[in-house]
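Dock zinc ion; give full complex structure.
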Amino acid sequence: MQLLAVESSCDETSAAVVDDLLTVRSNVVYSQVARHQPFGGVVPELASRCHVEVMMPVLEQALAEAGTGWADLDALAVTRGPGLASSLLTGLAATRALALRLDLPLYGVNHLQGHLHSIYLGKAAPSPEQYRSTLVLLVSGGHTALVRLDHDGSTHLLGQTLDDAAGEALDKGASLLGLGYPGGPAIEQAADGGDAGAIPFPGPPRMKASRFSGSLDPRFCFSFSGLKTALLYTLRDRPELREQGLADCAAGYQEAAFRVLIQRARRALEEAGPFEALACVGGVARNRRLRELLEHTAAQAGVPLLLAEPEYCTDNAAMIGAAAVLRRPQLTRPGDPLDAVPNLAVDA
Ligand code: KG4
Ligand code: ZN
C-alpha cells in the first residue's frame, strides 16, 4: 500500500509517501520560517496563504522523489488538528479534492498522534509491537505532554503543560534574549560554551490540583510561565547580561526548562508505569542537551531510549503517514465528515 500524507497544521507545508511497512519513500518539508522571521513568530494569515501557494509543488515533489504517480496511490492522509484553523483547512481542502478526483480513501490524523508515531520511522526504529508500553515525552512548539503509548497504538494522557509549551518557552526566552526565531535552535546555539550554573533560575515548580490540571495528576504536569518571568526580571535587573553573559543566560534558561521535563519524566517512569521504554518526540527533541539528559534518565531507569530521528522531530508529513498506517482502524472512515479541529486533544 502507498499512502500520500499531508501536514499543514502550522508553518511547515509537508507531503510524504509512506508504505504499509512504514518505509518513508519521500518526505518533502517546505519551511516557512523565513517568511515569519521578521514578525518574531508565526502569523496565521501569512501561514495559510503560503500553504496555498506551495501545496501543489510540495505534493508533486513528494510523488516525484518517491518515484510514484497519482495512479499508484492507495490512500491519502491529512492532519485534521490540533493547529491553526486556516492552515489545517488548506491541507484538508487539497486532500479532499484529491480524494474525490482519485477516488481514494482519506484519513484524518491527529497531529500529536503523528508526533507520537514518529519513533517508528527510520532505519534504527523499533517495531510498534516491540514494547508493550512506552512513556513518551512530547515536546513541541505548541504542546508538552507525557503520554503512555501502548503497542496496539492506543494512547493515554498522563500530564501536560498548564501554560506554555516547552518549545514556546524557548521561543519566548530567545525573543527576550534578542536571539531571533525559532528560539529553540537559537538558544541551543547561544548556550554553547555557556555555564548553566552561572545565573540562578528557578527549579521545577510544584504543581497543585486546579481547574487547569482537571483530572490529570498535577505532579505529571508542566509549567514554564515562572521560568519565563524569571528571565524577564533577570534581564531587567542585569541588562549587561545581554552582552557579557548571553551564553550563561541561554545555557541556564535552557537547562532550567529541561530540568522540568526530566523531573516529570523520571517521576512518571517511577510511578505511572510499568514502562518498557522511554521516548521523546517533537521539535524540542532535536536538542542535543535534552537528548543527553534523557539518555541518563533512561539508563537510570533501566529502559531503552527511543528518540525520533531529527528530521522526524519537527513537523513533517511522514509522521502523519505513520500514524495513518498504524491507526487506520480507529481513524475517520472514508465518507465520514472530516473537519479541522484546532484544539484536538492528544488522545482524541
Ligand atoms: O514539533 P514542532 O516542529 O512544531 C509544533 O508542532 O509545535 O516544534 C517546533 C518547536 C519550536 O518551539 C522550536 O523552537 C523547537 O521546536 N525546536 C527546538 C530545536 N529545534 C526546534 N528546541 C530546542 N532545540 C532545538 N534544536
Ligand atoms: Zn508538531
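Observed: The longest helix spans residues 246-271.
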